[in-house]
């Protein structure tokens, strides 16, 4: 059994620990009233900041050759099913491409549509060697299209200074590459002007 002095020391130590913000005089004042309300102080937990997972840099992507198409996969026939899927996607996007549909409505939809799988032809170019290239768009970047031709050749065609034609169920649309220098993701959110200068 504890003596009076030990009990007193224990109570003082206990109260000091339980009420760390109070001074000794204040604790003694509380004891004389014989009414003690113990306070609980929880330690503030420091929130750990979540580290954002950093994506690969452009240099790392190039080194890993993520966007390169292997030579054995560079075959036109392999991508014909992709073209069929793209046609169905455009029909759904333009509500069927009916004969009575307004051309400017289809044109506005195509400006924001995903072109992976579309068959395009270079109709005009400041570089004559590009004119006549026809094929399926395999990849669209900010400044170039990667196109696979019927001869199973992968062509990298710049958008700048080129005009592309795109045919869908008899509806022919023209893409002026100089005005089209955007990534597919950026293009879907861009507001295109209805009127503007048209040039190569």
TrEMBL record:
GO terms for molecular function: ribonuclease P RNA binding. SUPFAM superfamilies: Rof/RNase P subunit-like (SSF101744). Its main location: nucleus. Keywords: Nucleus, Phosphoprotein, tRNA processing. It holds the Pfam family RNase_P-MRP_p29. SMART domains: POP4 (SM00538). GO terms for biological process: rRNA processing; tRNA 5'-leader removal. It is found in: Nucleus, Nucleolus. The keyword Phosphoprotein applies. GO terms for cellular component: nucleolus; ribonuclease MRP complex; ribonuclease P complex. The keyword tRNA processing applies. It comes from the Eukaryota. Component of nuclear RNase P and RNase MRP ribonucleoproteins. RNase P consists of a catalytic RNA moiety and 10 different protein chains; POP1, POP4, POP5, POP7, RPP14, RPP21, RPP25, RPP30, RPP38 and RPP40. Within the RNase P complex, POP1, POP7 and RPP25 form the 'finger' subcomplex, POP5, RPP14, RPP40 and homodimeric RPP30 form the 'palm' subcomplex, and RPP21, POP4 and RPP38 form the 'wrist' subcomplex. All subunits of the RNase P complex interact with the catalytic RNA. Several subunits of RNase P are also part of the RNase MRP complex. Component of ribonuclease P, a ribonucleoprotein complex that generates mature tRNA molecules by cleaving their 5'-ends. Belongs to the eukaryotic/archaeal RNase P protein component 1 family. This is Ribonuclease P protein subunit p29.
